[in-house]
Amino acid sequence: MSNYMLGIWGLVLLVVLILMGMRIGLAMAVVGFFGGWYMRGFPTALGYVVNTPFATCNSESLSVIPLFTLMGVICAYAGISQDLYAACYKFVGDKKGGLAIATEIACGFFSAICGSATAMTASLGKICLTEMDKYKYKRTLTCGSIAAGGTQGILIPPSVGLMLYAINAGVGVGKMFIAGILPGIILCVCYSLVVVAVCAIDPEAGPRGPSYTLKEKLAATPTVLPVLCIFFVVLGGILFGWFSATEGAAVGTFASFILMTLRGKLNLQNVVGALKDTISTTAMIFMIMIGANIFGNFLSATGFTQAISTICVNAQVDRFWILFSCLMIYVIIGLFVDSLPLIVLLTPIFVPVIDILGYDRIWFGILMAMVMQLGLITPPVGMCVFVIGGIAKDTPLPEIFKGVAPFIVGLVVALVIVMLFPGLATWLPSIMRYGM
Q1: Which residue of 54, 129, 241, 419 has the fewest CB atoms within a 10 Å radius of its CB?
Q2: Three-state SS at 99
Q3: How many other CB atoms sit within 10 Å of the CB of residue 380?
């Protein structure tokens, strides 16, 4: 058996282990270990397992992961999600589908401080579901809008997915964060327009909510200001070169502690809970990265990555179709594998291809993140859908997937816009004062 074919069988075995229910990080480590043993002997394979964990975690750039995770978790424990949603629906809730539009806007704001799509879906889901039920929204629109809105967490910075891509692609984390701002806004607008379209077709799907006076709307505005302040201080500081992404994460975490204190939520229970959630999430991410690096050592030894690059160079087709094929691979595998391990696994394979094709790594990273969002709301994995299913227990999963379907169209439209106009992802990073 050729080394190249051994790499293919390694990928097949990895998928089988994941579908059997093995944890993804462990599955990658197991396949990488036994593959390395088969190719280069037991001592080399043991070296993979012994040295890779330290080599993976002993990187200053990785400190952004626990820091930004802690920042988002603290803000969630501070209870700002309720205020964000309340402020948004006071402005648009009296329109048809207004509460669903408010959900998309609130998700966009909350994404600016929470880098996890599933955490954001769970946090806002309980609030939004209750409010939309109160005004007789159809569950398809209710659950669909919440699940789709939650996916914004993987695109709008500080996104864990963008962090992992930046680290594995050799791109500055700060640049990837800045690149996600305009595409994130476009996606939020597309989702909101989907709500408008759904309510135009079926007015009963999203009845009008309560109407508020201008005074009441203005009174709700200050509740959004703390989130905007943290967002602009952190990302503005990175954009203008005041500090690096890691320093920005530290500043944001400190600011979130201040916010928790001002809101009267700083107590032992919340602090311990926030630290536990952060440790759990960080450990999961690091385990995925360690497993991916062990598997990556084996895959590199087979020459699989180099073979893929060679095939792309020699392919007699337009480079766009090769790019499209790469994104479709993300879509297909993303139907079965969660987004974070998929980013870590495929980035080292596809980045050399993107370089050969002459595309920008940052732009490709944004496209990749948007494609990953499809996996969060499509079966059979659809993590955001399953989170909503756990909250709306009386709504069958097929109904939720039906409600998500129009938002998939909105996501594809946003993806096409960013694909046609790469400057939407590359302009802001290009004017950064420092390439961090």
Answers
A1: 54
A2: helix
A3: 8
Decide if 182 is inside a domain: yes
Chain-centroid distance of CA 377 in Å reads 12
Report which residue type is found at 5. M
Q: How many other β-carbons are positioned within 10 Å of the β-carbon of residue 359?
A: 18
> What is the C-alpha to C-alpha distance for residues 413 and 421, in angstroms, rounded to an integer?
12
CA dist 203 and 96 (Å) reads 7
Say if CB 404 and CB 385 are below 8 A apart.
yes
Q: Look up residue 345 and give its amino acid.
A: L
Range of the domain at 412: 60-253+305-430
Whether residue 124 is contained in a domain is answered as yes
Within 10 angstroms of residue 358's Cβ, the number of other Cβ atoms is: 7
Note whether 146 and 103 are within 8 A (CB): yes
Overall number of domains in the chain: 1
pLDDT at 414: 95
Q: What CA–CA distances, in Å, run from 412 to 107, 247, 405?
A: 19, 34, 11
Q: How far is CA 246 from CA 33, 243, 335, 420, 432, in A?
A: 32, 8, 32, 32, 16
d(Cα 339, Cα 330) in Å, to the nearest integer?
A: 9
**179, 199 contact by CB (below 8 A):** no
Whether 24 is in a domain gets the answer no
Q: pTM of the entire structure?
A: 0.84
User: What is the band of 281 on the pLDDT scale with cuts at 50, 70, 90?
Assistant: confident
Burial class (CB in 10 A: 0-12, 13-18, 19+), 204: exposed
Residue 311 φ then ψ, to 5°: -60, -40
Does residue 318 lie in a domain region? yes
Query: Within 13 A of 278's CA, how many CA atoms are on the CB side?
Result: 23
Q: Two tokens at 118? A: 């599933």
Whether 387 contacts 128, CB under 8 Å:
no
264 burial type by CB count under 10 A (0-12 exposed, 13-18 middle, 19+ buried): exposed
How high is the pLDDT of residue 418? 96
Q: Is 116 left (phi over 0), alpha (psi -120 to 50) or beta?
A: beta
168-171: long-range pairs with CB below 8 Å, 24+: 168/343, 168/344, 168/347, 168/348, 168/351, 169/347, 169/351, 169/361, 169/365, 170/351, 170/361, 171/361, 171/362, 171/365
Angle between helices 181-201 and 397-420 (to 10 degrees): 130
Task: Give the range with max mean pLDDT: 97-101, 223-227, 284-288, 361-365.
Answer: 361-365
